[in-house]
Structures are given as structure tokens and as C-alpha cells.
């Protein structure tokens, strides 16, 4: 009787070696697998280093540090902070300073009417196509065409995934419908990406993710009232105009003028703020100081004369009433003159 065991052979090692075409196909698949990180590799990413976002110049007085300390405290408590206040009060600079202080990457987003859900979370950005050729059987070329849709994450998705600080400027200028995705972010710690298919349709929010939002007061034109369900999850910090000392420091950091000139500009700005119904913010003081620095309107004591102050502040504030009628501009001119 013949022993069958002599017929059994054990194959060690790789019996069949992959063809060059198969290797190239696998390489192409790996390339596509890394496509989602293509933006980062090319430097096109919304992530910024914290030291790069600190406003220059940025003035720190006791009032500024106190307000920033409140913001930082709420962020440490894992609460999204909504800075609300009049235009020109320094909300954006304050938000960026608080974000940088966390020493985490920062993602910037500016709100407007064009911001929708896709602009926040991402969308498909065309397709990618490649072919595999299988010539393992001699004389037979099997061709397989593979098409893959490419998804690009937008600021919110990047921020929640990377644990960045999201600074959403002019939050109230965006359509409230675009912010529905924020509910699950702040309530459940999950971001849903509508339009994305597969297991990665959702992103678990990174434990270091934080958000700072800024908005003008609701009476300003072009703003939307956001849904209560979302606002209930925010901490609202009111940012008003700073005290006179801080405003002098801010204006002096932006414009090279004498202390007396800066004091006169800030005093005039604060008087106009009380006298006029339009918004006269710290930004208006900086703009007026910039204009006064290039006009020859000093008297013998080194201070600006009243006529120059009147003309410059009228020019700075006229755009706020332009289009409402010539009488409004005349009224503004006379009110500025009376105040000065």
C-alpha cells in the first residue's frame, strides 16, 4: 500500500506574487485614502497657531484683563461664550485674545448671509477617478474603474475634530437655519455632517474644543434672532465700551499722537457717544485720530482746534447717516459742532 503522506506538500512563503499593476492599484488606493488630509498637506487649512491670531496692537488694562478673565473662566468650564455688544467696542479683538490664551489651535469663521450648513461643516468637492489593470492571466486585461467622491471639511468640522478654539465672528449675521448643527455639538458632543455618507458621517467632538461667538446687539441692521434652544446653551457676556483710560490706551497704540491730542479725541468721542443716537465706538476714535494725524489743525498749544475736530468727526460719522437724506447730514454736522 502506498503511503499518501508522501504526496502531501507544504508550501512555505509567498506562492503567488502580485503583479506590478496590482501593486500600482493598491498604491492608488492608499493615495485616495489620504485625500481627506490633502488640504492640510497643501497648507490650505483653517487652523491657525494661537500666537498668530493675537491682534496687533492689543492693549491690556485692568478692565481688559478682567473681562478676558471672565471669558477664559467660562471656557475652562467647557461653556461656549457669546460676546454681545455694540459695534466698535472691541469684541473681536477680545475674542481672539481669549482664544490665543488657551494655547490651542484657533479656527476663524466670519458670519454673513452666505453662511449655510455646508459652509460650516463641509461638502463634496468633486470626484476622483483612477483605473486598475489586472493582467494576471496572460493575454487578458481586466480593467476596473474606481470613482470616489472627495469630501472637504469646513471650519466647524476641523475645529471639533482637532480640539481647536472656534472664533465665530458676527455670529448673528448668519441664517439661524445654518446653526442647527451646533445643537448636537454643544448638547451631545457630536457633529453631524449632512451630505456625508458612510461611518464617518459624524465626528465626536474633541474634549478641548471650545467656541467664542461675537454678535452686535439685535437692533442693528442685518442681524438675525437665533433660536432659543441654541442660545440657552451659551454664556452671554456683554461687552460695552471701555472706560476713558482704556480708550486712550487703545487709540494711542494705533496712532502716534501726543497724550494731550489723544485725550482730546477720546473726550470728544465719549461726548458724541452720549449726544448722538448713532453708534460712536472706539473704532471711530481711532479713525478720527488717524485723520487728525495728517491734517494741519493744531493751535499754538499743540492741541487740535475745534474746527478741525468738527470736520474730522463729521467725516468719520457721516457714513452712518448717509442715504437717509441731506437733512440728517446737516443735523449731524450741527450736533457735532455743538458737542465740541
- Helical fraction equals 40-55%
Q: Tell me the number of strands.
A: 10
**What's the architecture of the largest domain in CATH terms?**
3-Layer(aba) Sandwich
Percentage beta strand: 15-25%
- CATH topological fold name of the largest domain: Rossmann fold
Describe the SSE topology:
Elements lengths: L19 H14 L4 H4 L5 E2 L1 H4 L8 H15 L4 E5 L5 H11 L4 E5 L6 H5 E13 L7 E12 L1 H8 L2 E5 L10 H9 L1 E3 L9 E3 L5 E7 L11 H4 L3 E4 L5 H11 L4 H17 L6 H11 L13 H12 L8 H14 L1
Parallel strand pairs: 2-9, 2-10, 3-6, 6-9
Antiparallel strand pairs: 1-3, 4-5, 7-8
Helix pairs in contact: 4-5, 10-11, 10-12, 11-12, 12-13, 13-14
Overall description:
The protein is an alpha/beta fold. It has two domains: 47-122 and 152-238, P-loop containing nucleotide triphosphate hydrolases (Rossmann fold, 3-Layer(aba) Sandwich), CATH 3.40.50.300; 244-339. Helix content is 41%, strand content 17%. The strands form three sheets. The protein has a six-stranded mixed sheet with strand order 1-3-6-9-2-10, with helices on both faces. Strand 4 (122-134) and strand 5 form a beta hairpin. The radius of gyration is 30 Å and the shape is elongated.
For this entry, give a set of tags.
Rossmann fold, 2 domains, 41% helix, 17% strand, alpha/beta, 340 residues, six-stranded mixed β-sheet, elongated
Outline:
With 340 residues, the chain is an alpha/beta fold.
